[in-house]
Design goal:
It contains eight helices and ten strands. It has 262 residues and is an alpha/beta fold.
Length: 262
Amino acid sequence: MRIVLDAGHGYSTPGKRTPDGMREYEFNRVVAQYAREELLRYLDTEILFTHSDERDVPLQERTDRANNWRAQAFVSIHANAFGNGGWNTVQGIETYTPIASSPDSDRLAGMVHRRLIQATGRRDRGIKSENFHVLRETDMASILCECGFMTHFQEAQLLKTDSYRRTCAVAIAEGLVEYFNLQLKPTPPTTTRLYKVQVGAFQAKENADNLAAELNQKGFNTFVFNEQNLYKVQAGAFLQKENAESLATTLRSQNYTTFISI
């Protein structure tokens, strides 16, 4: 699936910031990045960014890139504002769809908006239609998400946090996963964890070899390895931690110093 994540505006966009100075693009770009990371966990998923950290990309350029790439969904990520730049009481999350009839956009908006409200717990301002360029000029399912008001003090503080940005990103990604019925990529097999019983560590290899020989004579299987410029003597490696602890206890009862490592 080809998905466009569009972080609205740019660092230099005038006026798009909280009363205490956070630029909207700072929020938008991080959410886009986290959403991309989440979506790339799924099979057959490609992501295109239409924004840039170097400039505020013109709207026509953004929609042209999405159309030429033949994207199947376009999500523009924003933070809202109200009034003349000071703090006020308007708050909440709203999601926009095109004015022109677009059942796919409506369906995508419903899935993403529901996830955003559930995940953030912010006021639900609903799904609305608007004649925004990025919704009007795109050929695919297109929505614009306003994830909170920069002019509401509490929401502005949330918009600054990494945790809220990640929460919004995951919610947007989950809505897209539902819309496309995406399937997770198979996870690679995990490396087997072994609990190792270390009995000694020496700068001189001869000392490590002597300890290993002594332990071998007592029936313990050991080997010597070099790590961080030390020769270490290991007396066992186990899948179960309790087995390693049992061996360590036995060795300590014979006056050996032990250390369990992974």
